[in-house]
């Protein structure tokens, strides 16, 4: 009697994917679809400086009831995945300043942005494969849906993203995969194509139905997406900044400050950033070591930063009068303001608050 | 095992989390780190980041306008 060789059951290798997690519903669903197929997923969230996040709500009192959570972190926790948050704000400047594929309706370089992010994820994937071999990552997933966004999510642009990012057929879009050519994970049998989706267009009903099936009933739905560059008013302020500087450049502080306060530009060479409430006051206080600031000392009032340089005493008094206009003493004959330079030297200045007709609507950025 | 401190004051979400993550990547399992922030969102975000990445939150504390989160580093993961 011959003995049969003992049979060893070899478990198939669990495949691993990097997911681009924005914090919105689509990337959340894409991860769920992969998890359902037994794929190990870890998330990556890129910080560009333009991200719409809970911090804006954290600054303003009127938003105190809004959620202050970081949506990407919250999503990762709901999905039970690790999340790597990566600061790409410095490298991202080139995407904003020189988008090869141009802007969308505002200063949003959506197609270049997506190529850039998938490229960053591809580099991470390659690095992880080098460092960790089979414990590295096999492919990248995104929540992109064909036809959902006019600039970056069109049938023609999907292959551009795959190609120009360097991800090629290691980029899988689980929500729209059936509308697109087969990718490596499908061909290799790591992922079952028949269980992927064929969502397309701007109709969100299929996503809502899938969310319901997964039992997801709480997710972020920010109007205009998760990027300030899609916002008209924000883009106008950024364009104003470039115009005032005669060059298209910015620092991280510049773009953070565009999210806060009233921006009033009485002259091309300077603007006032005036807080609208206590929370913004506190936020702007952090910048008093970089900017000359003005606040009222004889009555409660806002804190204002001067971005640029005041060229005369007349301009200083004009700026002070505008700040006084937004204080509790706006109807008083005189308000005393405190002008502080970045080194901490303070000067008191009595001024008559500006009247409404002395603040031109054209100065409002 | 050693204790470390990270000054993340005046940084807005998600920078306190990013700074925390980057510092954690340089530390050893069992080390502790106190992160000091002025962004109130950090009170939720840093513990959330710790939970999903396998680090223990030892204490969260609000002192005036400051938030302090102390964590203990868990198992290292691939630093992407």
Please provide a written account of the structure:
Helices cover 33% and strands 16% of the residues of chain A. Chain A is built from twelve helices and eleven strands. In chain A, helix 5 crosses helix 6 (157-165). The longest helix of chain A has 23 residues, at 110-132. With 80 residues, chain B is α+β, with helices and mostly antiparallel strands. Chain B has one domain: 2-Layer Sandwich (Translation Initiation Factor IF3), CATH 3.30.110. Chain B is built from two helices and four strands. A four-stranded mixed β-sheet of chain B has the order 1-2-4-3, covered by helices on one side. The mean pLDDT of chain B is 92. The A-B interface holds A 18, 42, 44-45, 47, 51, 53-55, 58-59, 68-70, 72-74, 76-77, 80-87, 124, 127-128, 131-132, 135-136, 256, 282, 286 and B 9-10, 12-15, 17-18, 21, 38-41, 44-45, 48-49, 51-54, 65, 77-80.
Name given to the CATH homologous superfamily of chain B? TusA-like domain
Q: Give the total of beta strands of chain B.
A: 4
Strand content of chain A: 15-25%
The main β sheet of chain B shows up as: 4 strands, mixed
Question: CATH first level of chain B: which class?
Answer: Alpha Beta
Integer count of domains of chain A: 2
Low-pLDDT residue intervals, each spanning 5 or more residues of chain B: none
Order of helices and strands of chain B: EHEHEE
Would you tell me which CATH topology of the largest domain in chain A applies?
Rossmann fold
Low-confidence parts of chain A: none
- In whole angstroms, the N-to-C terminal distance of chain B is 24 Å
Secondary-structure element string of chain A: EHEHHEHHEHEHHHHEEHEEHEE
Q: Give, in spatial order, the strands making up the sheet with the most strands of chain A.
A: 6-7-9-8-10-11
- Supply the number of helical segments of chain A: 12
Largest sheet of chain A: 6 strands, antiparallel
Look at the structure and give the mean pLDDT of chain A: 90
CATH topology descriptor of chain B = Translation Initiation Factor IF3
**How many individual domains of chain B?**
1
> Percent range for helical residues of chain B?
25-40%
Strand segment tally of chain A:
11
Domain UPF0033 (chain B): 4-72
Family (chain B): Belongs to the sulfur carrier protein TusA family.
Pfam families (chain B): TusA
Protein name (chain B): SirA-like protein
């Amino acid at each position: 009697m011959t003995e049969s060789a003992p049979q060893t059951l070899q478990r198939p290798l669990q495949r691993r994917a990097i997911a681009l997690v924005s914090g919105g519903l689509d990337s959340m669903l894409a991860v769920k679809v992969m998890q359902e197929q037994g794929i190990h997923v870890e998330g990556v969230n890129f910080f560009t400086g333009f991200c719409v996040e809970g911090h804006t709500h954290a600054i303003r009192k009127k938003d105190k009831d809004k959620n202050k959570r970081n949506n990407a972190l919250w999503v990762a926790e709901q999905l039970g995945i690790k999340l790597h948050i990566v600061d790409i704000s410095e490298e991202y400047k080139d995407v904003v300043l020189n988008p090869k594929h141009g802007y969308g309706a505002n200063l949003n370089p959506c197609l270049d942005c997506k190529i850039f992010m998938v490229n960053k994820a591809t580099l991470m994937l390659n690095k992880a494969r080098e460092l960790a071999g089979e414990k590295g990552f096999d492919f990248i997933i995104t929540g992109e849906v064909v036809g959902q966004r006019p600039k970056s999510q069109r049938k023609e642009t999907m292959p551009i993203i795959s190609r120009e990012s360097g991800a090629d057929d290691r980029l899988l879009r689980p929500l729209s995969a059936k509308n697109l050519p087969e990718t490596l994970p499908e061909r290799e049998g790591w992922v079952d194509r028949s269980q992927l989706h064929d969502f397309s267009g701007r109709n969100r009903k299929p996503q809502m139905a899938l969310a319901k099936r997964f039992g997801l009933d709480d997710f972020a739905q920010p109007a205009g997406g998760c990027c300030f560059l899609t916002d008209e008013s924000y883009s106008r302020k950024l364009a104003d900044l470039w115009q005032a500087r005669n060059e298209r450049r910015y620092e991280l502080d510049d773009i953070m400050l565009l999210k806060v306060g009233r921006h009033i530009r009485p002259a091309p060479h300077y603007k006032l950033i005036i807080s609208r409430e206590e929370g913004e006051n506190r936020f702007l206080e952090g910048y008093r070591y970089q900017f000359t600031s003005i606040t009222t000392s004889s009555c409660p009032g806002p804190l204002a930063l001067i971005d640029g340089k005041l060229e005369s005493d007349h301009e200083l008094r004009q700026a002070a009068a505008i700040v006084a206009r937004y204080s509790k003493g706006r109807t008083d004959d005189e308000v005393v303001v405190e002008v502080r330079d970045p080194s901490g030297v303070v000067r008191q200045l009595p001024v008559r608050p500006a009247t409404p007709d002395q603040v031109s609507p054209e100065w409002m950025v | 095992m050693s204790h470390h401190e990270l000054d993340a004051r005046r940084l807005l979400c998600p920078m306190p989390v990013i700074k925390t993550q980057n510092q954690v990547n340089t530390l050893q399992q069992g080390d502790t780190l106190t992160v000091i922030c002025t962004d109130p969102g950090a009170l939720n975000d840093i513990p959330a980041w710790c939970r999903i990445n396998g680090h223990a939150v030892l204490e969260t504390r609000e002192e005036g306008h400051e938030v302090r989160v102390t964590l203990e580093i868990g198992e290292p993961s691939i630093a992407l």
